[in-house]
Write a structure and sequence with these properties.
The chain is an alpha+beta fold. It has eleven helices and 20 strands.
Length: 607
Amino acid sequence: MKLTKGKKIALISFAVFLAFMAVCTVAAKGIYASGLPRVSTTKPYSGSLTHVITVNGTVMQGQEYGVYVESGLRVDTVAVSSGDTFQAGQELFRIETADLAEIIRQRRLETAKLEVQMAAAVKEADSSRQSRKREADRAREDYDRKALLADEQIQVCQQAYDAAQRALALYDQYLIESEQEADEGEDGEKLPGGAGEGSGSTPEPAITPEPPESSESSASGEGSGNTAPEPPGNVESSASGESSGNTAPEPPESNENLASGESSGNTAPKPPESNESSAAREGISAVTPEFVGSGAGSAAGGAAEDIAGEPGGSGADEEGSLHELSAGGIDPEQNYNRQEKRLQLEQDVVKAAQALEEAMRQKEDSLRDAARLMEDANAAQDAAGADVNMLALDITYQKEGLQKLEALLEADGWVYAESPGRVLRCSLETGGRTQDEAGIVYALDGGERILSAALSESQSRYIAVGTRFEMKATMPDGSRAAGEALVDYLEKGQDGTVQARLSYDLQEMDLGQAAELTYRMQTESYSICISRNCVYKEGENSYYVYVAEEREGILGTEWKVRKAGIRILDENDTAAAVQSAELTGDSRIVAATDKPLKDGDTVRVVQ
């Protein structure tokens, strides 16, 4: 098929257009690529790092000594300077004698003033010591007196408490025996041929203990008919007591009723009274007025009155109630009174126990306060001579300093070397005054010599006691020598630097001479190592790298970079061992770039 002329022209025009478009595309892509950052990449590798630490050391004396004089002295002459050697007895520096004599005169006046003050202080201390001794003695006497009074009060409270307990026990015994006597009376009325009401005689109880009586009571006591046991009273009541007719149980009577000893008709026999009753009454009567005022004495006194008085009331009521008891019955009112009385006795025991406990607590508080006062008085007595002792120390110190100044003045102000050595530092200046620090620091000629070196904080991470350095130095004759130096001591300063002290084997070196120290260390093997130039820092302790990756774009395949965070495990001047979950052995890490990069930038990889 033949193409017409028009078709040929169209076909040729289309071909030219395609060629033109291809040229434009290539040109546009070239122009676009020329504006992209050009980067070179590298891949991570596994291996170890080598650390090379190089520092300069200086030969120093192992032990330094100082020359001291009192501060504030004017320097007239300095005979040595740093680096000079000297012999024993050689002149080092001289103090101005006129100024030194004036200082000595002032020191003597100050010492004399202190001695006058001390004499006055001794006199005042003696007077104060005597006064404080009296206060201490009085405090000790007060303590002993309070302890004695407290013990007496506790003893009184203890006696009242024992008396209240005995009173309660005695009343309980009385109630039991009264019930037994009432039961025995009922049994006697029911027996054949037994005595009836008003028969004038009471049958002898089946079990009736014979009450113990005192010697005076047995000698003077009288009785007629069959009588029930009668308790032993005091001497007066036993001597005047009379009884007749049939008797029934009766509560204990007071001493006055026992002393009167009158009874008519059918009178109730008194329950046996043990010796504890008399002891209880004596204990209660022994209570002091102070104790009665505190409440415990009134409690014991109430117990004594309850034991001594009739629980039933007046004499007329007693005859009726006792008549009922003899007939085999107990008056309910009398029973109620007995219960009330026993409750009162129990309360008396509780009050006496509380009073005893309060007395013990008061003793503890009183003795504690007295002991504190005594301690304060003794402490004041010990402190009486403190001012005198301080003045004595000041005088001793002034005299020792004065003796040194006088010895310096006798030597015409010259300070001499005590042993041969070399001056390391001299801070004295002619016309200036001495300071508290050493004016001259020197080292002995024959003493031990060491190397001193300063390590940075990063270098000190790899250095420890026992680390060996390679040492190179220029000897005094100009020759080069090599040796070893061993770290003996490390001390960290406030600025973060570490001062190292090393022993070395080139003992021919002079003081102050410098030496080059080198240490090489091979680390363990790391899985990811990269060039130090690949690492970027962001923030205080944040590090990252740029990773180049191929991606599809409008112009085809393009290279883009992204940030990958890393953690530095170790590093030296050229490489870094890192750890990151975003890196692999095939990652293309940006090693160099001609423009600053940002995360996601399109780049042109040239290598």
